[in-house]
Design brief:
about 180 residues; 2 domains
Length: about 180
């Protein structure tokens, strides 16, 4: 191998194994690589270099751990949403725009959730009123909606309603509930 490190421009890349080496599986998810997993590593700065095949091999080894962690996190998020918003799993699925079985597959650790879906569930857990707003918008536009199924490589089917354009809501950032004349 013996290539020069592109990080420090001093060391040489040599296959190394050992404990304590971290790998980013997905954004925000770092896991320790198995001690016997060789990775080209700089002899001076310790930077690790992954080509596509090595990255895929590391992901294959770490996938069960990631799916278990994702399952725990998603279960917490969905339970939080259901408790705070007072909705069912089906309502959560509808608000997210996913098929009825997709959320079940995620909660059982069979599939990986997309980053946008994870972000949406995290937002719903923080702002449960958004679940109701999405459900109301969906039911109000059901007759004017067109459902499109987009099949991804893992047979994930997303449903995205297509709505007639409407202006964005206006927000009053200087709103003071104590001086609200609309409540009178």
């Amino acid at each position: 191998m013996s290539e020069i490190c592109t990080e420090c421009l001093e060391g040489r890349l040599e296959p190394r194994s050992g404990e304590g080496r971290m790998f980013t599986y997905r954004r925000g998810s770092r896991y320790e690589l198995p001690a016997d997993f060789d990775v080209p590593t700089c002899s001076v700065c310790g930077a690790m270099f992954f080509d596509e095949s090595l990255r895929e091999a590391a992901k294959a080894l770490l996938r069960p751990t990631y799916l278990a962690d994702q399952r725990t996190h998603l279960t917490f998020l969905v339970e939080t949403i259901r408790e705070k918003a007072g909705v069912s799993n089906r309502d959560v699925e509808r608000a997210c725009g996913v098929t009825p079985t997709y959320l079940s597959h995620l909660l059982k650790g069979r599939k990986e959730a997309s980053e946008p879906l994870m972000g949406l569930l995290e937002a719903f857990a923080i702002y449960p009123a958004e679940v109701h707003r999405r459900l109301q918008r969906e039911s109000a536009h059901d007759t004017a909606s067109v459902r499109m199924a987009v099949h991804a490589e893992e047979d994930i089917v997303w449903h995205e309603p297509v709505h007639v354009w409407s202006p964005a809501p206006e927000y009053d950032f200087d709103f003071d509930p104590a001086n609200d004349v609309r409540a009178a």
